[in-house]
Amino acid sequence: MRRRHFLAAATGATAAAVPLVSARPYAVGTSEVIRLRSGLDALAALDATKGGHESLERAALAGATEALELQKRAASQRIRQRLFSVAAEYTTAAAWSLLDAHSAHQAMGHLNRALYLSGMAQDSVAELDVWNLHAMAAGQQQDHAQAVSAAQAALATRVARRDPLFASLAHARAAIGQSRIQDRRGALRSLGYAEDALAKAPQGVPRPAWTDFYGPAELLALTAIVRDCIGDAAGAEAASHRALAEIPQHFRRNRALATLRLALAQLHQRDIAQACGTVEKVFVLMDGSPLPGRMRSRLGDFHRDLITLSPDGNAAREWQDRYRSEWSQS
């Protein structure tokens, strides 16, 4: 989607997701909760297309503000809790937009606020979502021990004990943190738990839209990260190929990130030409959209590793030219 088209779409999605609060004299009920939740679905669809960006963050925060204003006129305590839950989800969506932009420090304020709101809502799904993103934020800040602790907090939530899909996600997030502190045994054990839990997860169970990304394909993509971090580049390459065979086409950003992980695995096996050819596909997949900060950071990792392993090769020089050109345009 080209930038001008996205701006129009973002404006429309924002308007649909965050209508103005009307000064109604009657108490707020279920219909308002449903309306606000439909706005969350619109933001999830926008994120799947475009990734984290400033417009999404603003729309999400506006949705949270409206939910909190409406809870003051809730018809019952149950409605009030549901509106707190919606506010927590909107706030978490705002934090995610910053994490995808690789701005973990700024995201932390939203995550702490979302954790408070999920507690007010007594919503363990929203709580797990916050801890999942806390683990990601800690990883971006290179605090991998804290990332493991956040994943363990996600595992302790009620929904993780009740629904194996959520438990699987938390185990996978723990595996990434463990792999980055070189706890090979712990990382592989957590991956095994994630696989076992996902195999037990029931299909067709209603879950929030933000969970749509997670399933066998995403677990394979996360497995590739873990395998590469513990020095098993061949295993990472195999997992990346399997992930790309299963990630739905409309998850363009996820496919681009998995492709980038494949290129890193090939590079770490000293297959320079193949890695450079693979990483070129990232730009093809993301054509017409700015690269999210998280993806730009991983491209930077590839660039640094390439220079280290092959500073003078032809493939490396051609890639560096392309890298500089694409970087200046994104």
Description:
By secondary structure, the protein is an all-alpha fold. Among the domains are: 33-122, no CATH class; 145-203, no CATH class. It has 16 helices and no strands. The protein has helices spanning 3-17, 30-50, 54-71, 77-100, 104-121, 124-140, 144-155, 158-162, 164-180, 184-200, 216-229, 233-246, 252-268, 272-285, 293-309, 314-329. The longest helix is centred in the first third of the chain and has 24 residues, at 77-100. It is globular and about 70 Å long. The model is unreliable at 1-24 (pLDDT under 50).
Blueprint (SSEs and pairs):
Blueprint: H1 3-17, H2 30-50, H3 54-71, H4 77-100, H5 104-121, H6 124-140, H7 144-155, H8 158-162, H9 164-180, H10 184-200, H11 216-229, H12 233-246, H13 252-268, H14 272-285, H15 293-309, H16 314-329
Helix pairs in contact: 1-2, 1-3, 2-3, 2-4, 3-4, 4-5, 4-6, 5-6, 6-7, 6-9, 7-9, 9-10, 9-11, 10-11, 11-12, 11-13, 12-13, 13-14, 13-15, 14-16, 15-16
Quick overview:
The chain is 78% helix and 0% strand. By secondary structure, the chain is an all-alpha fold.
Feature tags:
single chain; about 325 residues; mainly alpha; globular; disordered N terminus
Q: What is the 3D form?
A: globular
Oligomer: single chain
Number of helices: 16
User: What's the gyration radius in Å?
Assistant: 20 Å
Helix content: over 70%
Identify low-pLDDT runs: 1-24
Return the average pLDDT rounded to an integer. Answer: 88
Q: How many β-strand runs?
A: 0
Intertermini distance: 14 Å
Strand content: under 5%
Strand count, sense and barrel status of the largest sheet are: none
**Which structural category fits the helices and strands?**
mainly alpha
Instruction: Give the helices and strands as they follow along the chain.
Output: HHHHHHHHHHHHHHHH
